[in-house]
Amino acid sequence: MSEKNKLIPGLPSGFEDRWNKTLILKKRLLKVIENNFIRYGFDPLETPSFEIAENIGSFLAEDDNNPMSDVFSFNDGEKNITLRYDLSSPLARFVAQNNQELPSIYKRYAIQNVFRNEKSGNARFREFTQADCDIVGNVNPAQANAELCNLVASTLIECGLKKDQFTINVSNRKIIQGLIQDLKIPANKEIKVMRAIDKLDKPDFGIKGVEDLLKKERKDKSGAITKGADLNDDQVSKILNFLKIKDLKKLKQDFKNPITLEGIKELEDLFEVLDFGNYSELVKTNFTIVRGLAYYDGFCIETNLNFKTTNNKGKEIDIGSVCSGGQYNKLISRFKGVDIPGTGVSIGVDRLLFAMSQINQVQLDDQKPVIVCVMDEKYLKNYYEILDILRKNNINSEIFLDSKKNLGKQLTYANKRGCPIAVICGENEFKDSKITLKNLLGIKGEDNQITFSKENLVNEIKKFI
């Protein structure tokens, strides 16, 4: 192949390779998260990456003229299919399809990748791993939602965060829905208002950005324009005043709409149940949280980290929520004959990974292998006998795979791998039933090599690892 035609290695924007310590940390987080989900009584579910487009719905896009713009969709003959953008929509389809076989209260967890065709950057990816827990069925909402709050708190602590490093913020969509009703905002503008409010704490937004989205339009730093809800000045002013309220008592004094009061009562009931557990002090009210997805209709939750993160250029960034979710009473009812409420939370594993990679407070079990060097090809059988002993004793180990390389090149390879120990045996060792070990992590200039009887191999190695 000519130089001109050679491929240039690279990835599309929003996609990322993960390896070495980053991937080891991710795998540890996934293991901890799954174990905690199981401990809370959730059962696993796995759904395909693709769903029929009309089943998965369009809840992401802010462009009414192009409702599927934020997802990856493809024509599949008679139907369009879409890569799942979250794990809740596939759950809704699954429950509707299998509800006769499921228990009356279905608690499921799913840990899978999702795909979003949106702008990437600042720990936002177009493919990322979500870890979801949902409770589907007719339940006491306060109990179910308190269970989810407790689950989020305990999971993040198990992952290695300290209690003061994150805050679980909760609200209820009904509170703002009552205000929208009082302000006589038409139903077709409701989701635009919700999405505008939901962006208050997002990077580069703030109160001015929300105000612009509630009015005619917002222009971002790049010059891109997002069409707003086109509310009048009085409506915008009252919504912005609402956003300044921080506690339930003040809310009850100022707002008397029945829907708003219903949302307030549901939050009060939630905190009553939370007081029975161990994490109530980590849960705070934040009435600006309404969740951007259209299918939420009650309880809302967003979990934010209380420490700063930086991008690969060293610039301080706000990565947003690492765990969010809420209540959806109508998502499953889109399917004929099924009307089952649900509530759930979703941990953004890769966003959490991005943040935790920077604070370096999780001890990783990154045990590199012992390397068995090949000094002489005629002893290859003997080297494999040593390798077998190590592996049978659960010692990570490998044999050098090119017997024609000299010892220096084998040790260079071992050092690059970070191997802690090299087994170096030649004719004299095999004749005397001895083993020689070289401590590759020892201090340079010191005697880092020992020779001993073959039967002591495992005990001697364990002194180093």
C-alpha end-to-end distance: 47 Å
Spatial ordering of strands, largest sheet? 1-5-6-15-14-11-7-10
Low-confidence stretches: none
CATH class of the largest domain: Alpha Beta
Beta percentage is 15-25%
Structural class: alpha+beta
- Describe the global form: elongated
CATH superfamily of the largest domain: Bira Bifunctional Protein, Domain 2
Q: What composes the largest sheet?
A: 8 strands, mixed
In DSSP terms (H or I, runs of 4 or more residues), the helix count works out at 15
**Which architecture name of the largest domain does CATH use?**
2-Layer Sandwich
Rg, nearest Å:
28 Å
Question: What's the CATH topology name of the largest domain?
Answer: BirA Bifunctional Protein, domain 2
How many structurally independent domains?
Answer: 2
What does the average pLDDT come to?
91
What is the helical fraction, as a range of percent?
25-40%
According to DSSP, the number of beta strands is: 20
